[in-house]
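User: Modeling request: complex.
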Amino acid sequence: MAQSLERQKAKPHLAEEWVGKVYTLLCIAFLIGTIVSIVYFVASKGLSTFFVNHVNVLDLLTGLKWAPEGEPAVFGALPFIFGSFSTSLLAAAIAAPLGFCAAVFMVEIAPKFGRRYLQPVIELLAGIPSVVYGFVGLSVIVPFFRNVFPGQGIGIAAGALVLSIMILPTITTIATDALAALPKGLKEGSFALGATRWQTIYRIVLPTTLPALMTGIVLGIARAFGEALAVQMVIGNAPHIPSSLFESASTLTSAITLSMGNTAMGSLANNALWSLALILMLMTFVFVFIVRFLEGRSKL
Amino acid sequence: MKKTVMLLMVLTLTVALAACGQKNNDGGNNGGSELSGSFLATGSSALQPLVDQVSKKFMDSNKKVSIQVQAGGSGTGLTQVSEGQSDIGNSDVFAEEKLDADKAAALVDHQVAVVGMSAVVNKEVAVDNLTKQQLVDIFTGKVTNWKEVGGNDQSIQIINRPSSSGTRATFEKYALGQKSEDLKGSIQEDSSGTVKKLVGETPGAIGYLALSYLDDSVKAVKYEGVDANVENVANGTYPVWAYEHMYTKGEPTAAVKAFLEYMLSDEVQNGDVVELGYIPASKMEVKRDVSGNITK
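Assistant: Request completed. Predicted assembly structure:
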């Protein structure tokens, strides 16, 4: 009697287990399917520039001239690659010190005020649409640069400054989490040896959390690399390598967004834009690998 | 118990969805009594405001018709209508200029309006008139200072459109008569609003805008001594203009056909078209074919 009752009770659990398992597997299969098809779609479109239209890969990667409507059409993407790297690296160089200092302040110096007021404000930055950043950049940063520096204010400097504010939340949040996760014993040991707070932060806290901080920077660069609209509005989009930070330049994303809608699907000009998208995707993979590598090196 | 409720819900949903499908499918086969169906118009962002506004009016008077209007660029519009993904493809340029000849031949052109374009300069620039040759020199980088074309001693800042843009193609074809290059230091922006803002704020800037975008923040310059205005475009003395096309593939359904007819009716042509700054196709005294030949 008791045994059969137990068996009856066990059955719904088995069913639940099964339903849960199937549901999870379905979701995973859907996710993998989506990722594979996106990669396949971008790769097949991007590679047809080389296989169908017979554009030389090296010419595309190292060419300095981009003239898709020219006679003959020339596809040199180096100015875009240069623009993407320079804006996102410069943005990270501006945002990283700010983000680290904000994180140190929030965790080590004034946790109460910092975590309650500063963190929500910084996280708020992540929720602002990029077109707003672009418009603020166009209305405030560009005229300011135009008045202060030689040139039209438009260019890599304006793009990097807009991007640095956009990636600040990423870097700050990851740095804050890393600092907060530091074992108490490390700091207490340092204080016990007579180190001051600043010495502890500088000699113990920052070096120990360095891999996590680097992860934050790389994720920030990845975000900056893929951002399109805000940069497009302030960078000028001339397909040339600029000779100053305040001269019109272009990025991979802005080249794609400017022309994608105006070219017919399947045409050479359209395929070349997909090749730029392929370069972007491959770069994102590289960034993910770097992040994985850094996580593996974590000292905690 | 739970299962029964679930089953009921699924059943209801299926029936509801099937009903929806039915509604969409019998698109406009009612033979004139009452139009129904839904269709999609995509493409040119320059034409979108007009199509948007007219489609709302059309849906108000035809309750069973639903029209979706999406921007996305002339290339997208032409590709999608050619591949059957949308019912109407809006474009600033002739289909022959973007698609292969055989694909373009399958499309039916409806020219619903005309857009005039003018070169615009920053208000501080002391130039009122530019000849074709002067414009060519500026946009090919031969002339880089305003004093060389009769203005003050100030360097010229070009605010261009991306090389794939329909607006740029029109400007190059009818104002310059040749392709222009993306010069080093020039600026490319995709939206007319941004172009206007940059021309208005950048010292020594020159760009070009559709007549509907002109206002006090920028200065329109004459082309070969001719003012850029509606009359001069309509009577053929001002050459920088383009048709706004709405392409359909083959014979359109009744609802699409009625919508296009409404678009070309006097009510819309003399109302919404003028109101939004376009020039009515019916007002044009000259016609132009795909290779740019003008006929009276």
